[in-house]
Every structure is written in structure tokens, then in C-alpha cells.
Amino acid sequence: MNPFSLLKPINYFCPKSTIVLVAENKIYQPEYLLQQAKKNHDSTKKYLLKLKNKNPRNLDGLFHQLHSQVFKKTNCLHCANCCKSLGPRITSKDRERISKALRMKESDFIDTYLKLDEDHDYVFKTMPCPFLASDNYCLVYENRPKACREYPHTDAPKMIKHLTLALKNSETCPAVFLILEELKLMLPLGKK
Hints:
The protein has 192 residues and is mainly alpha-helical.
């Protein structure tokens, strides 16, 4: 039986009743998401460059509205692509907080879980994240790193500065992909 024959569509509503239908079970597949993000990459990149040049005053409001709408219908536990493929920077406050929650000395936490990357930042030694459970729950969720709490950054202030990051994150996070696709529909920029 074809697993995609029973897909349930998700309706994402924009002002003026614009609807984007996405197959829920399919968008959470990393391969499908990457395929769709790559397929749209050039047009999305051009769109975001135009958007940056226009710098609309309501951009933060639009991103925050879309972030809220999309995450109301997105279950991160179906996906966890970010936890499986992105290595967050672990700050000193993160190390202190997580090691305390694990009842470990900070030095033991560093030795067990972390390494220094090429930028001399601490990151996890292994990916997927060592705290990602088999059901995609985070074992240190209440104490997770700042980078994880803020991901995918689509509700950050001054989104005009984060457009390149949003494009990159659209290859990992279904929500970012959907936010950017909805943004193109809500704020068309023409063919110039």
C-alpha cells in the first residue's frame, strides 16, 4: 500500500483566504522537505533579497503572525529534524544549567557530551542530539540550550537581519519552509 495515499492535508490560512495545502505526513520527512526546499530555493532566495531591499515596516508582524499560525498546526515531535541534524552552540549558561539538571559536575558534562568546534564554541560530540529520545522528546527540555529554545528564529525581532538564516533553516524545519511559502503569498513582491 502506498503510504502517501492516506495523507491528511493541513490548511494554512492567510488573509484573503489564501490556502496552502501540505501533506502532513510527508512534510515531516527530511528527504521530502529538503527536496521541496531545494526546488523552491532559487525563487525563495530571490524573494528574500527583494524583501530585504524593500524592508517593509510590517515584516516582523507578518513573520510573528505566520510563526504563531504555523506552529499551532505543527507538531515538532513528528519531526525533530533540528535535533537530528543541527548542532547548537552550548553557552556557559547552558552548560551550567544542563549539568545541574543532570546532577553532574560541569567538567564531567563537558567531557561526556561536548567538544570544541572550529569556532572554539562548545557543541555536542554526536548528532543526533544525545538528549533526543526515540519518541523525539527532549530529555532536558526544561533546561535545553538557548539555541534550541530560540530555534527556528522566525519570531525573532528584526527579521530583516535573519532572512538568510530563515532560508537555510527552511531546509531543516518544515515550519520555516511553510512560513516562507505563506509569506510569499501574503506579501507578493512582483516580478521586477
